[in-house]
Request: fold
Amino acid sequence: NAGVTQTPKFQVLKTGQSMTLQCAQDMNHEYMSWYRQDPGMGLRLIHYSVGAGITDQGEVPNGYNVSRSTTEDFPLRLLSAAPSQTSVYFCASTSGGYNEQFFGPGTRLTVL
Amino acid sequence: AQSVTQLDSQVPVFEEAPVELRCNYSSSVSVYLFWYVQYPNQGLQLLLKYLSGSTLVKGINGFEAEFNKSQTSFHLRKPSVHISDTAEYFCAVRPDTDKLIFGTGTRLQVFP
Reply:
C-alpha cells in the first residue's frame, strides 16, 4: 500500500492564481480530511469528507473548495490564491470511528 | 467547542534524560485523545491514543501518556530520550468521529 499520497510536494503561486492540491489513498478509507499547518498554530481542519459525494467545512474553509467523486481521491482547490494561504497542507484518511488517521507527506505552498 | 492546549512550544533536553510534554484539553462528556509525532519534513504519525479503559497508555518508541480526568490532562512521557526523538509532538482530541482538533505543538529538541 502506498498509503496517503499528495502532489505536488512544493508549489509557488502568484496572488490570484488557482491550483489544485491532489490527495489519494489506497486503503479504502471513507473519511478524508485536509489540514493546514502554520507555525505556532498546529494543524487546522479545512474541509473533510465522510464518503464519496459528501463533504463538509472544517475550521478554516474560506478560499478553498473540495469534492469527493471517488473514495480514493480528495482534491483541494484554491480558487484565487492569497499570501495568507502560504502554508503546509496535509491530507489525512481514516477508516472511521476512532481509528488512526493516516497523513500524507504534505504539500508546501508559497503564495507570492 | 473542544480544545487542546500545549503550553510548551519548545522543550530542550539532553539525551538519556526523561521528558514530559504537557497537554490539557477542555472538558467534555466523552474524551478521545491522541498524540502524534512529526519528524522533520514528514507527515504526522500516531504515537498513542486513549479511547477508554486504563488511564496509562503505552505507545511506540517507548512513549507513554496518562489520562487524568480530574486535571483534564494527557501528558506524554518518556523515561530516556534519544537524539532520534527530536521532532514536533502534537496532542489532539477527537470530539466526534469526523474531526480531529490539534494543539499548537511542542518541539522536542534532544541534545547530545
Notes: Chain A touches chain B at residues 4, 31, 33, 35, 40-45, 48, 50, 56, 58, 90, 92, 96-98, 100-101, 103-106 (CB under 8 Å). The two ends of chain A are 36 Å apart (CA to CA).
